[in-house]
Predict the structure.
Amino acid sequence: MDSFAGKLAVVTGGGSGMGRELVRQLAAQGCSVATCDLNADAVAVTAATAWAAAPPDVQVTSFACDVSDEAQVLRFRDALIDKHATDHVDLVFNNAGIGGGESFVTSRREVWERTFAVDWLGVYYCTRAFLPLLIASSEGVLVNTSSVNGFFATLGPGMPNTAYSTAKFAVRGFSEALIEDLRANAPNVRVAVVMPGHVGTDIVVNSLRARGLPEPEQMSDAQIEELIPPDVRAKLIGAGIVAEGASADDLRRLIVQGNADFRDKAPLSAAEAATIILDGVRSGAWRILVGEDAKSLDAAVRADPDDAYDWAKLVKKMTEAADATPE
Ligand SMILES: NC(=O)c1ccc[n+]([C@@H]2O[C@H](COP(=O)([O-])OP(=O)(O)OC[C@H]3O[C@@H](n4cnc5c(N)ncnc54)[C@H](O)[C@@H]3O)[C@@H](O)[C@H]2O)c1
């Protein structure tokens, strides 16, 4: 696919971060987009700004949809077919995702299952719904966003990420499994799997919002206590991140600051990440690593899988991989 001009793309999770930037960049390149999000207001803003800046003949529409609910996904599909007066779509970006359910041992089961449902079932339901429309295109591309947690299942020492990693491994496995299936049974469609490292977005607070929690400033003491339970608080105190005797307000500020740091101190912005994803899709790549951190982690894990969860050895291998990368 040399160009996105004149195509129609579906982007899930277009209300923020990489999804919002994918919508903007696709529209700017002449591609019509139908985008959805749990957050109807945010995705409407994305669509309106992307459409206003797009060339003539481009149409950008937004829809409210929870991708973990199959009935809503089917309504989204039917509504976009109607609005775009189309019988096919050319690109589907399964981008929507949330974090949560970090520990299988201590996290609440509902939170674990919600994260798994959004991050895996969202991709599954959307692929079920949209694959026939990709097959109806002359050249269809399915782009599934996994993560570095799709090949490496933790965030670091003492930082499990079990629901997210399980879902993101599933997204990668599903995508890789589809390569041969599509070649054999739908050769005009191909699949790409996106594995970003750290990208600066508001995913920390958006994930809390997607769980039905209010903004951190409005959270009750009980909600703060559930998010940062005593054992986690003790670890934060031990690491010098919060002071002994920190109040609920201190912890509210910590969440706000944690989100800002995640967004603002990332090695890549959401716009840069979207450009890498779109360049990868245009190039025909099936495997799109986003960011130097993703590339060095991938190289280290592949070089010696047995040592992947030995921190000292892994960090040494990542440093060697980064040093070996040409400028
Ligand atoms: N930011 C990172 O460092 C990073 C790294 C690796 C992978 N990812 C993945 O990239 C994708 C985009 O993440 P982002 O960082 O841009 O996050 P983001 O929070 O900025 O954007 C995600 C969007 O998805 C929406 N969303 C959440 N649940 C939804 C649901 N059930 N139905 C519909 N929309 C829903 C959110 O409202 C939000 O607008 C996700 O799949 C995420 O897991 C992100």
About this structure: The first strand starts at residue 8 and ends at 12. The chain is about 50% helix and 15% strand. The chain has a mean pLDDT of 96. The CA atoms of residues 235 and 241 lie 9 Å apart.
